[in-house]
Design brief:
Length: 451
């Protein structure tokens, strides 16, 4: 056989092999390689997709408004950074930057995490016999993952408000968990205007009839995506409902998770600790089957977004319970991200260890909080003047416009070069990113869109 014939034989053999392999591959790209859960991961994050559209508009020279991202920006558009934290990070010894942290976290940081979660009431609660434990995590998201991975049975439902941070579902579904929701606001005459207590209690009761563990997540104060914060009466009413349910359903484990990612920018940053103290001081019995846990983030409070540091802080009257949780969370972290970054744990621990360091951080945090207060007040005023039905909004990074067609509203605003984020049930307004002088433009864009 000549050389041409040899080449043709090779080509025929290759084609034959190719045809033999092809039927084994599914028409759905990657189906033969990805597991069924992985194949459900489609699309892109809505927040980052709309942020990209804003960036595209800026690139064309448009005078565009960025109301998309969940990071605090100065009025000049630069990232707002707590200068005291930044200086402390830069002064960290090389070994504190390069070395691993202990798997559960640096002891000084874990102690600080408890104080950041509970504030001045920490010592009072511990004196009452409440045991606390903390585990360092990869940001607030890591704290949420620790809870999702350990406090509910696979296949169970987790109770959420119907308006919540979208990635919640991703953390939960990744742990084979589903969601059950209750309305964000009551539609009936209620003494608690920012809590649908009736809906919450009804759905909690439903879960207690079908599950032996029930977990509830509530992002409070400074709720993402609305900026809503419960009143003291609302917090007490929710706590009472949870304690009552745990007492009545003694064979059902109850976990109340408080996502406090934005709490240090709220008027009542430690309101939940105050509520717990008041309840305990009044003699409320803490059921053995109730755990209260805080998902803490340093991203916003210490402007350390990229260093990915947070903590899960858990409370229970039985120390053997918190010791067991401490072990479980440490093992989960080890099996997921190994150890949370050391330098951020070291930095904030050292900074808050002295009165001077804590005061300097607080002064800078107060400056950043003032940006948010000014922008929120301006937006509420402008929307009132233009009859834009903005939802109640109190604290934190965001405001919210409830609407049955949020994509249409966001698109209409984008035509006016105002970029917001359409989510389930409404449009999120990232006050954290909008300069004060552009607030009237946001309100006007919403007014025009609603027409």
């Amino acid at each position: 056989m000549n050389e041409t014939g040899v080449q043709l034989t090779k080509i025929k053999r290759q084609l034959k092999e190719h045809s033999r392999i092809r039927p084994l591959m599914d028409n759905d790209a990657g189906a033969g390689l990805l597991n069924p859960y992985a194949q459900t991961k489609v699309g892109s994050d809505a927040i980052f997709a709309w942020w990209a559209r804003y960036k595209e508009a800026i690139a064309t020279g448009a005078d565009a408004v960025n109301g998309t991202i969940g990071a605090l920006l100065e009025d000049d558009g630069s990232l707002a950074i707590n200068a005291v934290v930044d200086e402390a990070v830069r002064k960290a010894p090389p070994v504190e930057i390069a070395a691993y942290a202990p798997l559960k976290g640096l002891p000084a940081f874990l102690d600080l995490a408890k104080t950041l979660a509970l504030g001045d009431r920490r010592s009072d609660l511990e004196a009452m016999g409440i045991s606390t434990t903390a585990t360092a995590s990869a940001g607030g998201s890591g704290a949420l993952y620790l809870a999702a991975n350990n406090f509910a049975n696979r296949g169970d439902h987790v109770l959420l408000r119907d308006r919540h941070w979208g990635p919640y579902k991703g953390f939960l579904s990744g742990c084979d968990l589903k969601t059950l929701t209750y309305p964000l606001l009551p539609t009936y005459d209620s003494p608690h205007p920012y809590l649908d207590l009736q809906g919450f209690k009804e759905q909690l009761s439903v879960l207690c009839t079908s599950q032996d563990k029930v977990m509830m997540w509530i992002n409070d104060p400074a709720h993402n995506p609305t900026g809503l914060s419960l009143t003291p009466g609302g917090r007490m009413a929710m706590l009472e409902a949870v304690m009552e349910s745990a007492s009545v359903n003694e064979n059902v484990g109850h976990t109340l998770l408080l996502d406090v990612a934005y709490h240090l920018y709220a008027d009542e940053p430690h309101g939940w600790a105050e509520t717990l103290y008041e309840a305990m001081n009044e003699g409320w019995p803490w059921p053995e089957n109730l755990l209260i846990t805080f998902a803490l983030s340093l991203s916003k409070s210490h402007t350390m977004y990229g260093l990915r540091t947070g903590a899960l802080v858990s409370l229970h009257p039985d120390e053997t319970v918190t010791e067991r949780i401490d072990t479980v969370m440490g093992v989960t972290g080890r099996q997921t991200w190994s150890a949370a970054p050391r330098v951020s744990q070291y930095t904030v621990s050292e900074m808050h260890a002295s009165d001077e360091g804590g005061a300097a951080w607080s002064k800078e945090r107060d400056r950043l909080q003032a940006l948010l207060v000014e922008r929120r007040s301006a937006l509420i005023k402008a929307c009132d003047e233009l009859n834009v039905p903005l939802n109640p909004t109190h604290d934190g990074f965001f405001a919210w416009l409830e609407h049955e067609n949020p994509s249409a509203i966001a698109e209409a605003c984008a035509e006016q070069h105002v970029y917001l984020v359409p989510l389930t049930g409404g449009v999120r307004i990232g006050l954290c990113a909008v300069p004060i002088e552009q607030i009237p433009k946001v309100a006007q864009a919403l007014a025009n869109a609603l027409e």
